[in-house]
Amino acid sequence: MGNLFKTCNCGQFMKLELRKLIHERKTRICHVPVYACQACKKYELLPLIKPDLLRYLASISNESRRISVSFADVNESAYVLREVFRTYVDDSMVELQSRCMEAFDDRINMLLDLFRYAQNMGDDDWMRQMEGRLEQLSAIKSLIPENSGHYSR
Predict the structure, then answer these.
(1) Is 90 left (phi over 0), alpha (psi -120 to 50) or beta?
(2) What secondary structure letter does DSSP report for 10?
(3) How far apart are CA 34 and CA 48, in angstroms?
(4) Which segments of the chain have a pLDDT < 70?
(5) DSSP H/E element including 37
């Protein structure tokens, strides 16, 4: 089935979803990738995004007012998954994996183009930013099995 899906401790099927998390009852973070069990409703954070989420929470910890944000605005993988799920209509798992693979490839290619442009401009800060974004995508993309079926256009 690939790692976009996994088995829950209850033995049932968990699938990748985007959820809203509430942190310290004042911060709502939308579009957080989690595995959600279809039977017992348990969910767990996608392990590869946990460090980014913790860093983000630390960066907004001084906010005293209630805020609502999208994790897709600060995490490349969440951004790509949000875009895929916006048009995803409960197709087959193979179709979802194909769509994810295509979306990740497109985003990686765009960021590589931006990296090359930043390199030509000699902009080290921009290059580091693109490298960080590419690392986020590469880590999550590694979860999608290569043999997930081919898509055609």
Answers:
(1) left
(2) T
(3) 10
(4) 1-4, 89-93, 142-153
(5) strand 27-37
Domain boundaries, the chain: 5-141
- Reading the block at residue 2, the tokens are 């690939």
What φ, ψ does residue 34 adopt, rounded to 5°? -140, 160
Q: Are 77 and 103 in contact (CB under 8 A)?
A: no
User: What value does the mean pLDDT of the chain take?
Assistant: 82
Distance CA 23, CA 104 (A): 28
Token pair in block for residue 40 = 């017992």
Per-residue tokens: 127: 């290059």
CA distance 55 to 26: 17
- Two tokens, residue 131: 């490298």
